[in-house]
Amino acid sequence: MRLRKTYLLALVLSAASLQNAFGQSYKNEIWHETAMDSTYNPVYLPDGKIKGGAETHAIIKKYAPLIAPYYEKLGYAPEEIKKYKPESPLTDFTADAMLEAAQKYLNGIASLKHEKVDFSLTNYGGIRDNLPKGDITKYDVVCVFPFNNRMFIVSLKGKYVRSLMEHFAKSEMIQIMGGVRIKVVKRELAGCLIGGSAIDDDKTYRIATTDYILSGGDNMKALSHATDRIDTGIMLRDIISDAVKQKCLGGKPLIVKTDGRAVIIK
Fold it and tell me: Is residue 76 part of a domain?
């Protein structure tokens, strides 16, 4: 059996990163260096022992079970689901999955089940790659969404929502949003609809976002005025995993199209 050295390294580091990503601790592990060449060719003896590569095999045996669950198939995509600016299939899918998950969360709270989540917001930089063509696994989702971002549901006055949209316009960087249609012309906010209506400065909007953004991430300072903060405890990557599963129920392929929600004219 040939096994590239890079694969072994990826296996061990993947196990460590997945433990970290899913809240498990690997800091107490004892790390060792193992000298090996570019191939891994163990010989399995009748008594169960290994001749050659035993130390390497022990490392693989230890960490392989940790990452095995993350190769569970979630769904199938006939085409790569890409991210690009100002709007893409992957960014729309992410925003819509967040919006749906946030509404479901509120619906499960008796005192809030009649409340509506107006829009979702996360940052473009939080998505690190495209979702691949073919089978999509939990591991693929972790690779695309590697950060431990949790979803929060907050309230924000309309005047601050307007300020946020104007910030996107001036920077010509529209972040990922669901429930919003925005048009920017020459760095000016030419139009913005939330739930089909223009921004009302006096209205209080409920927003699904992340702890990263609430901490001032990507210079979204308007969110510093957010109130009624609800920490759902749900990781963004778990929201995406669930959304892929739901879209692919019954063997359906994951097909995502853009809808023109974000337009920039320079």
Answer: no
